[in-house]
Specification:
This protein is mostly helical. The protein contains 34 helices and 6 strands. Strands 1-3-4-5-2-6 form a 6-stranded mixed beta sheet, with helices on both faces. It starts with a helix and ends with a helix. It holds the Pfam family AAA. GO terms for molecular function: ATP binding; ATP hydrolysis activity. This is ATPase AAA-type core domain-containing protein.
């Protein structure tokens, strides 16, 4: 695509943002959106604009346009997430909003709801992330070498085994050694199996030999040379003609549109477009000749040029204004000059650009003026003024009470609307009518004049700071002269010393008070590199695999809205899981602006059956947002920080996580952390109880604030273990709890081909995918992945062209993995019904049904009882 394509996309997106603002705030308040469906339409439109802006920003070459487009992109993303949180409130607190009916009405496909993750989350921090990964890799290699050296020095098998178990984060215990009788039984069983397999192989070979001899005997006389050649030719021609007929049949199916046309990788339009986009990105990010590198060089040179040509004029103007301010504010009696505002308060910026009075100051001035007027007017006026004021106060109180009673409905947050308005205004003023520098050529260079306008405020600020230092020195000299003149006239020089002492004492007291508020940090004497190295050496800080959220395969459900209308709350589809994880976790972590202004989500719970992708989703969150990944799972940290040392572990993790934000703190089997029953906790194993991190974890979690960009992600396969009093504490920790369901029929139809493609294979066009999806019901996605990875060995992949995979072969491997028991799935649904949102909905439905069933009779009985009491 040409550069003008992305300029057009940007223009369209900005105009659509303007239309959206008008749709949200129409002139007639009655037309403002109120219902869930109306806000859902606005959400879908913002999502489309966000996708368009993200695609345009990714391929925009002009650096200054990228800066302004980035502001619009983040503002649009923030507004989209604001509306997403509002949809949850309108949806009775349910995180998954069913929009399938709305998509049908708008004639849109479910792909519209796929939320893209901006690529600049990683690309703009590529150097930082690479340096971090290299440092982490060096630390891990150093730690592994130290462990191997320790094992070699010990020279004992037991010590070697223990070091290997300590070295591996997920080491599996081999258990106690077998008894001699058990060991002999295992050896005998394996040997008998080997002998049986060998006998079977020999019998099959002999059977094949007998079959060959039988065919020769039935053939009778051996064929002559010509007869043998004729037979071979007929067989070969038959094979060739069968292949030819098969090819013609495939071509006919392609021609009538019943079979997709085979794609040549070299001539594939999508592959060509991908290569073209990659070349454009290289033109942008090239470290030597890229447009961003040229822009950075131009910033340095043009800044020096602006300072050289306009710096002196700026300096004189600033000095003149400060001198005028000194003269205007000089004490006429003593001749003393006022102090220049400190740099912490803005310095001379307060003089050059006085801040506008706040609303509170204006109201206070009006109140003071009214009070003066009432005093001048006398008592009658004051009484007359008080009386209506009292009435107004009463009326205001009633109005406030009424508003408080009737205004319980919340109003959607609008923190990002001013940012969108500013981005649109900036686009209209700078780019709407301005031709693109460099035209439609391949290279789009920066605009020097526009860059000078952007650099002038920076140069002005530097010059102002220099002038402030000079003026402070000059002011000190002037004050000494004034003080000397005053001392010579009045003969009171001791006053100056006394005042100086008082000033010093006040300053010392302030410093002492400030010192007392400092928070205690047990690792204050350690560098961040040492903390990073310790966590990495203990396996707590790890490098997450580069997993994409798109690898969590699954489609969108088209029956969600229908089921909700029937009073059934459906399981979320796998596409909705991807959408929720992106909106609640990845986007806020990747954007500092969004994290500061959106509702703060400190923690995310992923609960579901084993092998449903909980760990993979947590790793995808860390990878796509460019986050550090801390594994605080109890089995991972067991034995590293015993006893009270766990407080230091939690402190270090959260300190490093905040410093190196964004960060993801992952805890597997998190429900066991909240189990307080000691008998039950002993069944989990481990040197330390799993709950030993609970107290410090909750304390550190409370200390997280908006803008820290730290997210706690918990994975749970048995959330019902935290029962009774533990359940309340467990549920109260999580800002969002997402159920990771088993794949349904539609999801399995997408998962099977996707898994074969991921492992280097491909299912035949006429493969019976529907039957396979039906037969694999109840299996988790991780089990299906194990089936495909076990089936597609390197040898089997080479034979796929001649011998495609059939359903019998897949079922043979499917029998080797275990399906999720129905009892486990039912237990997960029962626990999900006890979560706050679902419990409130189910309770309201039960109350409504009870009232409809026995409401009339109960009211009548209550009236009869009341009458009897009155008679008595």
């Amino acid at each position: 695509m040409a550069n003008v394509t992305y300029d057009i996309m940007w223009r369209e997106a900005m105009m659509e943002l303007l239309d959206q603002l008008e749709a949200e705030n129409p002139e007639d308040p009655a037309l403002a959106p109120k219902e869930l469906s109306e806000w859902a339409c606005i959400y879908i439109k913002y999502l489309q604009i966000f996708r368009k802006l993200e695609a345009a920003y990714d391929q925009m070459l002009q650096p200054q346009k990228r800066q302004d487009m980035r502001k619009a992109l983040e503002a649009c993303m923030g507004r989209m997430l604001e509306i997403r949180h509002w949809l949850v409130k309108l949806n009775r607190g349910l995180d998954f909003v069913q929009l399938d009916d709305l998509l049908v009405d708008l004639k849109l496909t479910p792909d519209v709801l796929e939320v893209p993750v901006p690529r600049y989350f990683i690309e703009d921090r590529a150097k930082e992330l690479n340096d971090r990964d290299k440092f982490l890799q060096v630390l891990l290699e150093k730690y592994q070498q130290a462990n191997q050296q320790g094992a070699a020095d010990a020279g004992a098998v037991v010590t070697s085994n223990s070091s290997k178990q300590g070295n591996s984060a997920n080491a599996v215990s081999s258990g106690p050694p077998l008894l001699p009788e058990e060991a002999v039984a295992v050896i005998i069983r394996n040997e008998r199996g080997r002998q049986a397999r060998e006998r079977t192989r020999l019998v099959a070979s002999a059977k094949r030999s007998r079959a060959v001899e039988e065919r020769r005997r039935q053939a009778g006389v051996a064929l002559s040379k010509d007869e043998a050649v004729t037979k071979i030719q007929s067989m070969l021609r038959g094979c060739l003609w069968r292949n030819r007929v098969r090819q013609e049949a495939n071509q006919e199916l392609v021609f009538v549109g019943m079979k997709p046309q085979p794609v040549d990788p070299k001539a594939d339009p999508q592959a060509i477009e991908a290569r073209h986009l990659l070349a454009r990105k290289q033109q942008l990010l090239d470290p030597e000749h890229g447009t961003l590198r040229k822009y950075d060089d131009a910033v340095v040179s043009l800044k020096a040029k602006v300072l050289e040509t306009e710096g002196e004029d700026m300096r004189e103007a600033i000095q003149d204004k400060i001198n005028a301010w000194f003269i205007a504010n000089r004490n006429p009696q003593t001749g003393e000059y006022p102090d220049l505002p400190p740099e912490e308060a803005g310095g001379s910026k307060v003089i050059l650009q006085p801040p506008l009075p706040s609303v509170e100051e204006l109201l206070a001035d009006e109140a003071a003026a009214a009070a003066d007027k009432s005093k001048k007017g006398g008592k009658p006026g004051a009484a007359a003024a008080k009386k209506p004021a009292g009435k107004d106060a009463k009326g205001g109180g009633k109005g406030d009470a009424a508003a408080e009673g009737s205004g319980t409905a919340e109003v959607i947050s609008s923190a990002f609307i001013p940012l969108i308005e500013g981005a649109v205004a900036e686009y209209i003023s700078k780019w709407q009518e301005q031709p693109a520098p460099g035209g439609a050529s391949w290279e789009q260079q920066h605009d020097p004049e526009l860059l000078k306008d952007e650099l002038r405020p920076l140069v002005f600020e530097e010059v102002r700071q220099q002038v402030d230092e000079e003026m402070r020195t000059l002011l000190a000299n002037l004050k000494e002269l004034v003080a000397a003149e005053a001392a010579a006239k009045a003969g009171k020089q001791a006053k100056k010393k006394k005042g100086g002492k008082a000033k010093k004492g006040a300053g010392g007291k302030k410093a002492k008070g400030g010192k007392g508020k400092k928070k205690n940090d047990p690792t204050a004497d350690r560098s961040m590199e040492s903390l990073f190295a310790e966590l990495a050496s203990n396996g707590v800080l790890v490098s997450p695999p580069k997993v994409e959220l798109a690898d969590y395969l699954g489609g969108y459900s088209f029956m969600g809205a229908t089921l909700e209308k029937a009073g059934i709350i459906p399981d979320p589809s796998l596409a909705q899981i991807r959408q929720a994880v992106t909106e609640f976790a990845i986007l806020p972590l990747g954007s500092q602006l969004a994290h500061e202004r959106l509702p703060h989500i400190k923690s995310l719970l992923l609960y579901g059956a084993p092998s449903t992708g909980k760990t993979m989703v947590a790793q995808a969150i860390a990878h796509l947002s460019g986050s550090c990944f801390f594994d605080l799972s109890p089995r991972n940290t067991d034995g590293h920080y015993p006893g009270k040392a766990v407080a230091m572990l939690l402190h270090m993790v959260f300190k490093v996580a905040k410093t190196m934000a964004p960060s993801v703190i992952y805890i597997d089997e998190v429900e066991k952390v909240f189990v307080s029953d000691k008998k039950k906790a002993k069944e989990f194993g481990g040197q330390e109880p799993f709950s030993h991190i609970k107290k410090e974890l909750l304390r550190e979690l409370k200390g997280l604030a908006p803008g820290d960009r730290v997210l706690l992600v918990g994975a749970s396969r048995e959330p019902w273990l935290a029962a009774k009093k533990d359940e309340k504490a467990f549920m109260g920790v999580w800002g969002k709890a997402l159920h990771m369901p088993l794949p349904d029929y539609a999801a399995r139809r997408l998962i099977w081909p996707g898994l074969f493609a991921r492992h280097g294979g491909k299912l035949a066009y006429d493969f019976d995918l529907s039957t396979l999806a039906q037969l694999s019901e109840g299996y988790a996605a991780g089990a299906l992945d194990a089936v495909v990875s076990g089936l597609l060995t390197p040898v089997r992949r080479e034979r796929l062209k001649m011998h495609p995979v059939d359903i019998q072969e897949i079922l043979h491997w499917l029998c080797r993995v275990q399906a999720v028991p129905q009892e486990v799935d039912e237990a997960l649904h029962k626990w999900a019904d006890r979560t706050p949102a679902l419990a409130a909905i189910k309770g309201a439905a039960a109350d409504k049904a009870a009232a409809a069933a026995g409401g009339g009779s109960s009211k009548k009985g209550a009236k009869d009882e009341k009458g009897k009491k009155k008679k008595k």
